[in-house]
Amino acid sequence: MKRIFTTALLVLAMSAQGFAQEEKKPAERGYKFTDVKVITKTTPVKNQYRSGTCWCFSTLSFIEDEIMRAGGEQIDLAEMWIVRNIYFEKAVKYVRLHGALNFAVGGAAHDVIHGIEKYGIVPEEVYPGLNYGTDKPHFNELDAVLKAYVDAIVKNPNKKLTTAWQAGLNGILDAYFGKMPETFTYKGKEYTPQSFAESLPVKMSDYVSLASFTHHPFYSKFILEVPDNWLWGEMYNVPLDELMRTIDNAIANDYTIAWGADVSERGFSRDKGIAIMPETDIESLSGTEAERWGKLTKAERNKEMFSFDKIVPEKKIDQQMRQTAFDNYETTDDHGMVIMGTATDQEGNPFFKVKNSWDVRPPYGGYWYFSRAFVEYKTMDILVNRNAIPKDIRKKLGL
Q1: How many CB atoms lie within 10 A of CB 39?
Q2: Tens of pLDDT, residues 236-284
Q3: Is residue 135 part of a domain?
Q4: Where residue 162 sits, what CATH number does that domain have?
Q5: Number of domains the chain contains
Q6: How is 112-153 classified by DSSP, letter by letter?
Q7: pLDDT one-digit tens code per residue, 338-393
Q8: How many helices (H) and strands (E) does the chain have?
Q9: Which of 19, 130, 331, 383 could serve as 258's disulfide partner, Cβ 3.0–4.6 Å?
């Protein structure tokens, strides 16, 4: 009897301990996402590593998606083919402008379209562009060498440019990226870079850049005034609601979007894989939200808003807010990614699923979730297939 009683006490104690442990276990916190619509014909997450070439990785990833959407096979196109050719053009323009141009590794989506049209394209295996001893892009030395070279040319110590300087530039580029092949064999067939581009089931003329700013007329083309737009490439200007309608329409019809955005905001978390635009102005809140957050000091409120461990109210974005942020340098060209789906958090708030080029990494395998408010506020420009644009907007743009 004593043994039975002792055993019963032991079971009861263990149960109580388990209950206590269950009580102490913290509840799940943070954002939880459910994918709503994801474009499945999309190539894997890539890794730009230590290079500022997101503009190229994202846009070529977008073109690869377009190839699959058009019925082509999955293919890995060579980012460094484009980067190498763009570097040469940028250097020549920098010298022609006596150094009055942003000579840096950054660029825009339309650089890739321009590069394919002018130089063709090759598969990654044909031109990996890593001729300097690493297996991933690592541009620190390369960028410093190129900048020093073009600055020396601009100083013009001979008081007249020699005929050798562009050959010298090509020598540096060939040394770091490798010599560019005139012909190559891919899957048993010989191509030139131009003929390979022509063999793909996509046409560069089908791709259109859109932006939304009030300092230029809507439904016209303009040059976006940001340092990385060294090419002075043009894009169409549309109201914010039509920019967002274009993104929505693209995803609904299985088109991905090359997305230029600013991720320097505090609401962007590298560790959490999400981006939000918390409403830190209590006067913009109402009801229980205003009461809840109004009890906190400003410091406490900011800490809570950007902790990412609970869902917070977000800003209501309008056209003027976007413009003010751009005019004040709060929004600028910063990072290129690919929008390839939609999702919701556990309260049903809308998010976009985005493919990044920072390698496969937690928590979402190299994908990010951006709130709709963040996309509305921080989008610089998008590149889309013209057929992804709603018909009424296309008509306004003359497309």
Answers
A1: 22
A2: 999 999 999 999 999 999 999 999 999 999 999 999 999 999 988 776 6
A3: yes
A4: 3.90.70.10
A5: 1
A6: HHHHHHHH---BTTT-----SS-SS-B-HHHHHHHHHHHHHH
A7: 999 999 999 999 999 999 999 999 999 999 999 999 999 999 999 999 999 999 99
A8: 13, 13
A9: 383
